[in-house]
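Example (one chain per record):
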Amino acid sequence: RRPPDLGVVAVQSVPDRPFTQQDREIGQILVSFASEAIRLVQALEGLISGKERLQKIIDNSPSLICLKDLKGHYVIVNKRFEEWHGYARDAVVGKTSHDLFQEDIAALHTAQDKQVLSSVRVVDQEIQIPFADGTSHAVKMTKFPVLDVNGQPMGVGAIGRSEEHTSELQS
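Predicted structure:
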C-alpha cells in the first residue's frame, strides 16, 4: 500500500547559473533523505497506534495484566491492575514492586519473577493479594518469561485472575 502523497518539493536553479552534476546529485541525496524521514515517521505512527490498540485490548480484560523489565520495573499495566491496587498507570510505570507494595507482597512478586527468569518457564501460583479497597483476594497469578527475537528473556509478563472479583464484575 502506497502512503498518501504529502505534496511536492521543488528546487529551481537561478537563470544565470544552471545546476551542475554535483548540484543534481546533492538534490537527489536530499530527496532520498526526506523520503526516508517520511517513511520513518509513518512507521513510528504505526507503532504508536499498534501500542494504543494493544493497551485497549488488555485494558478490557477482566484479568490483571502487567509486564516488567529485567530489573523489575513495570513497563505495562492494565486498568484491572489500577483498580485492584489503587494506582494510576503513570504512577506505576518505571517503579518496582518494592516501590508500590508492602514488603511481604513485594518480596513474593520479586521471588516469582526471579524464578521465571532463572527457569525461563511459566510459574502458576495462587496468592492472597490485598486490594485497594482493603479486602484481600485469592488471585491465581501466572507469570511467564517474555523473550526477545533471540529467545533471551527481556522481561516478565503476569496475568492475575481473581474468581471472586471476576464474578462481581459479571453481576
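Caption: Residues 5 and 71 are 44 Å apart (CA to CA).
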